[in-house]
Amino acid sequence: MSAAEREAIEAFKRDVIEPSMDALVILDFWAEWCGPCKQLTPVLEKVAATYAGKGVKLVKINVDEQKMIAAQFRVQSIPTVYAIFQGQLVADLTPARTESQVSKMLDDILRQLPIRGADDAAHQDIAPLIAMGEEVLEAGDAERAVSIFAQLVEMAPEDLQVIAGHARALLAAGRKNEARAVLEAVPDDKARDAGIARAKAALALADEAGPVDDLAGLKARVAADPDDQDARYELAGGLMASGDRDGAAELLLGSIERDREWNESAARKRLLTLFEATGLEDPWVAAARRKLSAVLFG
Fold first, then answer.
1. Active-site residue identified among 34, 70, 173, 271
2. For 174-229, what is each residue's pLDDT tens digit?
3. For 120, 131, 179, 287, which has the most beta carbons within 10 A of its beta carbon?
């Protein structure tokens, strides 16, 4: 083995193997003459920078200068992109060519591996405070929840769970425009987060189903004519605005049972939005989903 080859192996151990013990290392095999490599490089660099706080590191391997390393990985064409964890190849990222495709693959990988980046560590430090904010919000003290989450935003301005909680607290306090501004400030590459999606669903419900002045009148209309779909839909919106999700869900389920296609499946769409706004992991949603399945397939 030549001195250059020994140096390449030592550099690979230092730059790839050792960091991969507690991080996910993206290996990008490339060459100066490779056109597709030059197109992919900015994508990988941007995604790696975004995911650095999650424990992701990008290492570029020039196949002309590090032929032995490329041969060890049996690289036959470029660009070739692999993900390495604890010295082992865990995924082939080569098929991904866009920022969203690479991000999705990384999200899937990170969910399965015990990797804790700086962002995760910071999140764990404030997790008890986030839980307190959620408990206060669930108890109905919206203004206090807003205060708690506003302080958390100062501590961790990029934590998506904090941002989502802040937006939902603002909504619960009737400060819809402020909640909208919070959610609109979330970068597109982070909008897929489940907590952000939940907050956006809550905002959509607030936009569509506002308070109703005459709930009693609507209830009387539905009682007099249970097939009055417009009245059922409007009443469901009013009940959601007043915090009666059970009543709203029962009305929407009844509408779906009567005519699931009414108004382009409006009742089903509103019910699904209510599920997302409540949180798809919530036991209430699981029970309501079973009722929906019984209506649709029973």
1. 34
2. 999 999 999 999 988 778 788 999 999 999 999 987 777 889 999 999 999 999 99
3. 179
Is the model's pLDDT at 257 over the cut of 90? yes
For this structure, is 235 an active site residue? no
The span from the CA of 26 to the CA of 273, in Å, is 37
Q: Which alpha helices (H) appear in 214-261, and where do they start and end?
A: 215-224, 229-241, 245-258
Whether the Cβ atoms of residue 201 and residue 278 lie closer than 8 Å to each other: no
CB 29 within 8 A of CB 75: yes
Name the burial class of residue 185, with classes exposed (0-12), middle (13-18) and buried (19+) by CB atoms within 10 angstroms of its CB.
exposed
Angle at 94 between CA 88 and CA 99, to 5 degrees: 110
Evaluate whether 167 touches 199 at the Cβ level (below 8 Å): yes
Q: Beta strands 88-92 and 56-62: pairing type?
A: unpaired
| Distances from the Cα of 171 to the Cα of 139, 181, 244, angstroms | 15, 11, 16
Do residues 17 and 87 lie in contact, with contact meaning Cβ atoms separated by under 8 Å? yes
Our answer to whether residue 59 is catalytic in this structure is: no
Distance CA 278, CA 245 (A): 9
Burial of 144 (0-12, 13-18, 19+ CB in 10 A): middle
